Structures are given as structure tokens and as C-alpha cells.
Amino acid sequence: MVRIVLDANQFISALLKPGSNPDLIMRLVRREKVLLLLSDAICAELLRVLTYPKIRNRLNRSEESLTEFIDKLRAVAVVIPGAVKLPPLQSDPSDTKYLECAVEGKARLYHLRRPSSDRPEYVPGDKDRCPGHFPDTS
Q1: 63: how many CB neighbours lie within 10 A of its CB?
Q2: pLDDT given at position 109
Q3: DSSP letters for 45-93
Q4: Rounded to 5°, angle at Cα 42 from 41 and 45
């Protein structure tokens, strides 16, 4: 089964934009077609982002219901222990938690947004690859 890691923005898009790609991915998770990987660090960031007033108002949910949403996510996901610690990503150190989860959970492909267009968006899920190293695609 394909193992995936989504970042907080993708969860927000899934909630706010029915029919979006992140929403379709979450439907696959609910139908057990793909395996969602989470960590405590990812859940904490997601809850923090969900409780931003602007997002919470758009979702029209209480903080309690947002906490329940995180609990439901944890119930359908594999929660990774968080034993893998990698050097911070240079482009955005706060995103390292997603790569750590993907590596520890043995995801096959990691999606990383790159600020510059000269780097690929995907890094093969290879334990021998150094995080932040992007292979030459030319």
C-alpha cells in the first residue's frame, strides 16, 4: 500500500476545498487505498494551524471539534514514533518533521515544495539520500 505524508496546508485544503486533490487523497485514506503517516509533531502543527482564527472561522468549528478531528486522523493513520531525526531542511527547517515522518514511515516518494523552480519537487524515498539533497534531473 502506498504510504503518504501530507503537510498542514494539504489538510486545510482538503477541509476547505471539496473536490480538491488533497480532498481526493483524504477520500483514498478513508477508503484504505493509501496509508496516511502522521507524527505527534505533525498533529501538533496541524492543530495549531486549524485554530488560527481565520481558518477556524472558515471551518465554523470549535476548538474541541478540531481536536476531535485530529483524534480521528490519528485513528485512520499510522502514527510514527518520531525516532528519526534529520538535519533541518535549508529551505524551511519547520518542514523537516514531514520528511522525518516520511523516512521513518518508509514512504516511497516525498513531496517537498521548493521555493525555486530549478529544483525538482519530488525526492525518491531512498534511505541513502541525504535530506535536502536533490538529484540532478538534467
Answers
A1: 11
A2: 60
A3: HHHHHHTSHHHHHHHT--HHHHHHHHHHHHHHSEEE------PPPSS-G
A4: 85
Phi, psi for 4 (deg, rounded to 5): -130, 155
Residue type, position 77, single letter: A
**Residue 48: which of 8, 93, 92 has the closest Cα?**
8
CA 49 – CA 51 distance, rounded (Å): 5
Domains and CATH numbers, the chain: 2-124 (3.40.50)
Cell representation of residue 47:
492543530
Of 40-44, 91-95, 111-115, 116-120, the one with minimum mean pLDDT is 116-120
Residue 93 has what pLDDT?
A: 86
Q: What integer is the mean pLDDT of 48-77?
A: 94
In degrees, rounded to 5, the angle at the alpha carbon of residue 46 between the alpha carbons of residues 28 and 61 is: 85
For the chain, the distance separating the N- and C-terminal CA atoms, rounded to the nearest angstrom, is 31
